[in-house]
Amino acid sequence: VNGDESRVFVRVSNLTDGVFAIAVTLLAFGLEVPRSDHHLTRHVLELWPDLLAYFLSFAVVGRFWILHHRFFATLERFDRRLLTLNFAYLSFVALVPFTTELLGDHGDHAVSAIAYAAVLAAAAVIDWLMIRYTLERQHVRAEARPGTEPYAARQTLLIPVVFLASIPVALLSPYAAEAMWGLMLLSWPAQRLRDARA
Amino acid sequence: VNGDESRVFVRVSNLTDGVFAIAVTLLAFGLEVPRSDHHLTRHVLELWPDLLAYFLSFAVVGRFWILHHRFFATLERFDRRLLTLNFAYLSFVALVPFTTELLGDHGDHAVSAIAYAAVLAAAAVIDWLMIRYTLERQHVRAEARPGTEPYAARQTLLIPVVFLASIPVALLSPYAAEAMWGLMLLSWPAQRLRDARA
Amino acid sequence: VNGDESRVFVRVSNLTDGVFAIAVTLLAFGLEVPRSDHHLTRHVLELWPDLLAYFLSFAVVGRFWILHHRFFATLERFDRRLLTLNFAYLSFVALVPFTTELLGDHGDHAVSAIAYAAVLAAAAVIDWLMIRYTLERQHVRAEARPGTEPYAARQTLLIPVVFLASIPVALLSPYAAEAMWGLMLLSWPAQRLRDARA
Amino acid sequence: VNGDESRVFVRVSNLTDGVFAIAVTLLAFGLEVPRSDHHLTRHVLELWPDLLAYFLSFAVVGRFWILHHRFFATLERFDRRLLTLNFAYLSFVALVPFTTELLGDHGDHAVSAIAYAAVLAAAAVIDWLMIRYTLERQHVRAEARPGTEPYAARQTLLIPVVFLASIPVALLSPYAAEAMWGLMLLSWPAQRLRDARA
Questions:
Q1: Strand partners, D75
Q2: Which of A106, A126, C156, D72 fits a 20 to 30 Å CA distance from D36?
Q3: Tell me: the pLDDT tens digits for C75-91?
Q4: Confidence grade of residue A10 (pLDDT, cut at 50, 70, 90)
Q5: Is the distance from CB of A105 to CB of A50 less than 8 angstroms?
Q6: Angle at alpha carbon of residue C164, lines to C159 and C167, rounded to 5°
Q7: How far is the alpha carbon of A22 from chain B, nearest alpha carbon, in Å?
Q8: What ipTM does this complex have?
Q9: In chain C, what is the straight-line distance between the N-terminal and C-terminal CA atoms, in Å?
Q10: If you compute the radius of gyration of chain B from its CA atoms, what whole number of angstroms results?
Q11: Within an 8 Å CB–CB cutoff, is residue C60 touching chain A?
Q12: Which of D24, D40, D72 sits opposite B94 (nearest CB)?
């Protein structure tokens, strides 16, 4: 990585981290402070589905960020198409606060679960396309290739597959779709534990 | 670039990337979650003009960012007037979430298309003024000059010209103005393809 | 810290600083501009509890940031579990604008004080877990250990203890709970003075 | 500046730039998209006072940022009190979107002009205190002292003096107070011109 590439790297990383930081912080906008004092405690307690959607999205977007920053750390150069793909990726990450609020407010409707799954599946597919593209164009550092290839395939594809599979499920039952995402989330700490032991 | 200049560079880039990151993430605020469950699916599907405006603005602002970071990468020093021009530029970038929401909600009105085009034309003109100013003041690194001059002229001026030309068109038909921007957007991947082949 | 670790460090710090920057700036969203001109001066003056909650949260979150950046400065490496803990930490920091608005609007209700204290106690407990985890895993630079150990214990635990203790107090009187936080805040400048003299 | 100091510097700058970037981008939230299509053009044109307040605040906050980053560039170390002062400074910068919206919506009321001037005067006074404190504590690099001392005094104090002086004026006429700020703004390009010639 020479001086100019390093400068590009810093600015693309800054922009990407900025979008992630704002997207996760705006997730909390789905939580609305009740206007009136009337039955305040009950209204705050009734925010639990919004709070659940908040932590779900925080965990998913956090996981996306970890995958993305690991991937970026393997690169030795950028080109314009990669920048474009990264913007396309960010355009779906930035939609997560909207779909999270939809899910928190109307989680019992199929349309909410479908919108949520579609946005995250799109982001994950573009992430996978970015990894494939950089491997093909030799943008990945030689010593990072062996570690990147299987990792990219196995771990990145799990996410879009689960989200895409949950779309038809949501038509039958939004709750079943949401349970699928929850199971995927719960399988992550197990993986981490295995990685830590290895 | 010495130590002090490099520090200025980092902070101006941080601020600029921060404003861009926030502006693109706030674009999603034009998408409003329906309050009521009634006809929820229909109301979500009716958000398509907002979603179209969202992706249009994401693509345009992303393109602005790429041009801006390429331009900044050629600089070897800053002065106060360049900082002021950069703030003027950012003040129009930060207006894009407002004009995007206006376009998404009222895209069939001339005033929305005119406001949208005027804000982006202003940003693009200031970008062009910044490039001209830095070339004139010898702030561009000597080896970057040959690459900067024609590039700045051809690619940066296309954007304000299209947006300015779309303002009178919008008075006749907002949709025709919006089609002009779409054509400009579609011509970018073609350019990228040509660049990649060259 | 080698090149790759340093890159991870920069991106994690960027994301963390981004979430903090957005969280503190969004605190001001609890201050709502009155719609009508009618009795404007009185309505603006009646915002004082929101303004008090704003400065309280700014001071608390600022203090959290100082503790966090001191802690991060002692690290020589990251692992995935630390990244996960850091995201968990940030997920509570990002809730502070919500609990601050709740406190500003309904500070006389126990539920507001409890939600406020619970979110900050959770963040502080996770911070303490991160410090313990990194000391145990030898992620802290050898020369920074003697300084980190007692500091972490004394100063970081004070915060969750005060917030957790204020939860039962809030059930009796929200104002008493808020007074406890205020006393903790006022004890900080005193500590700083002592540190500066030492 | 050694390694550790440099790391602190980077993170404090990141946080500060983040708060500035968010504050200026949120200024546009004072511009509300009309809900209804009815008389849309007229309602958009009636946003001109909000737009004027937007550009005024963008220019003022931009100027604050330039002063702040110049000041930070002269430092060779930080201490905890300086961090605290910087947070106090940022807590007033983050209030600017609120006071800007108040000014844009109710600019003909004294309370709006007073709130606007008080917030900016507080930020400017804290900035001046930071500069004084660092000069006194020898945190400024020796070779930067001659340049910092007169500059700090002359240029930084002009801002709080104008804003503080405009508070009693606003009680008589909010418009006269706003004119005072406008004159201060217009005098800046003149100064810049003089600096550029020198």
A1: D140
A2: A106
A3: 888 888 899 999 999 99
A4: confident
A5: yes
A6: 135
A7: 7
A8: 0.89
A9: 30
A10: 19
A11: no
A12: D24
